[in-house]
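Continuing the batch. This is chain 6 of the set; chains 1 through 5 are on the previous pages. Same settings as before, nothing changed between runs. Recording input and output for traceability.
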Amino acid sequence: MEIRVSGNDVERALKILKRELQKDGLFKEIKQRGYYEKPSVKEKRKQREARKKRSKALRFKKPSQLVKK
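Output for chain 6:
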């Protein structure tokens, strides 16, 4: 990842860097690794996230893509 600083505007570069790191999920992963998570809880969390991701994807799909032929 590379963030270019133009015109000595470090504040803006930091803001862009934080946004990119958040988009990559780095902050979320750091929070999760901050404590031990039992394997059963980890599996349930992953299933919950996958379910949420699928439902979000369905919301943004066009109706023509939902119908199977």
